[in-house]
Amino acid sequence: MAQTNKGLDITTLSLEQLNMLKGQLEEELQVFSTSWQQLKLAGSRYNDSKEALAEINPGNEGKSIMVPLTSSLFVPGNLTNTNRVLLDVGTGYYVSKTVGGAQEFFDRKVKMINDNTEQVSQALAVKRKNLESVLMVMQNKIEQLQGQGQGEAQ
Amino acid sequence: MTSIQSLQAKLEVEVREFRSLQKQIGNFQNTRAQYLTQSNENGMVKKELELVEDEGEIFKLIGPALIKQEKTEALSNVNKRLEWIKGELTKIDTTIQDLEKKTEEKKKKVGELQGQLQAAAAKAQQGK
C-alpha cells in the first residue's frame, strides 16, 4: 500500500485517510529504526571479534589465557595454536580457518552489515520525508476546515 | 424493524469473518518473514562453506558436540535446506494470495451490507 500512496497525490485524501497513512508510516518508521539499531549492534560485535582476533598471533603463543567453560566459569589454559581459529558461520556450522582467513571473514561480515545499514538508512530517510509531507497536508486541511468554519459563522 | 436486525446480524457475521481472515493473513506473513530470514542465513552459510579451503575443517553443532563434516556433505545439507525453505515460501505465498482474495470479497460484502443497513435505517426514519 505504501508504494501506491507515494504515486497518489496525498492532497486528494481525506483527513481520516491521512491520519491512517500517518499511523502506518509511523509504524514502518519504528520497524526501520529497530532494524537499524540491531544492525549497528551486530556490526559492533563483529568488530569486537576482529579486535580479539588480533591477539591470536604467534607473539602470544604459549601465554596463559582464561578459557570460559560457562558464562561465569573460566579455567586457566595456554594459548597453543595461534594459526587457526573456529568460526561460527551460522545455522550450527563452524569452520576452522587461518587467522588471516578469519579476518577476511569478519571483513566480509562487517561490509555486509554496512551495506545493509546504508539501505536501511536510506529507506528510513524516505519514510521520514513521506511522514513530514503527510503531516504538512494534514495541517493544511485542518487550517482550511477551521477557516471555512469561521467563514460560515460570519 | 426485523429486516434491520437481520441485516445487522448478517453484518456482524461478515465482519467477524473478515477480521479472522485478516488475522490469518497476519500469522502467515509472520511465518513467511521467518522463512525469509532462515533462507538468508542459510544462503550466507552456503557462501562461507564454499569458501572453505581444503585444509579447513567444518564442524556441525549437534547438541553439545561439534561433529566433523565433509565439505560436500555440509554443502549438500545446506542446499537441501535452502530448497525446502524455497518450497515452503512458494506454498505460503499462494496461501496468502488466496486469503487476500477472500478478504477482498469479504470487504465488498461488508460494504454492501453496510449500504443496505443505511438505506433501511433511512427508510425507517422516513416512515416515522
Keywords:
heterodimer, A: 154 residues, alpha+beta, two-stranded antiparallel ribbon, 65% helix, rod-shaped, disordered N terminus, B: 128 residues, mainly alpha, 2 strands, 84% helix
Commentary on this structure:
The complex is a heterodimer of chains A (154) and B (128). By secondary structure, chain A is an alpha+beta fold. Chain A contains three helices and four strands; from the N terminus they run H-H-E-E-E-E-H. Chain A has helices at 2-7, 15-53, 99-153; strands at 64-68, 74-78, 84-90, 93-98. Chain A has a two-stranded antiparallel sheet. Chain A has a two-stranded antiparallel sheet with strand order 3-4. In chain A, strand 1 (64-68) and strand 2 form a beta hairpin. The model of chain A is unreliable at 1-5 (pLDDT under 50). Chain B has 128 residues and is mainly alpha-helical. Chain B has two helices and two strands. In chain B, strands 1-2 form a two-stranded antiparallel sheet. In chain B, helix 1 (2-51) packs antiparallel against helix 2 (71-127). Chain B is rod-shaped, with a radius of gyration of 27 Å. The N and C termini of chain B lie close together (12 Å). At the A-B interface, strand 3 and strand 4 of A face helix 1, strand 1 and helix 2 of B.
Structural class of chain B: mainly alpha
Mind describing the biggest β-sheet of chain A? 2 strands, antiparallel
> What string gives the helices and strands of chain B in order?
HEEH
What is the N-to-C succession of helices and strands of chain A? HHEEEEH
Helix content estimate of chain B: over 70%
The major beta sheet of chain B can be summarized as: 2 strands, antiparallel
Number of helices of chain B: 2
Structural class of chain A: alpha+beta
What is the helix content of chain A? 55-70%
What is the beta-strand fraction of chain A? 5-15%
Q: Which word captures the global form of chain B? A: rod-shaped
Shape of chain A: rod-shaped
Average pLDDT of chain B works out at 91
- Estimate the mean pLDDT confidence of chain A: 87
Count every beta strand of chain B, where a strand is a DSSP E run of 2 or more residues. Answer: 2
Q: Which spans of chain B of ≥5 residues are poorly predicted at pLDDT below 50?
A: none
Largest interface in this structure: A-B, 13 and 20 residues
Total beta-strand segments of chain A: 4
Tell me the distance between the termini of chain A.
Answer: 41 Å
Across the major sheet of chain B, the strand order is: 1-2
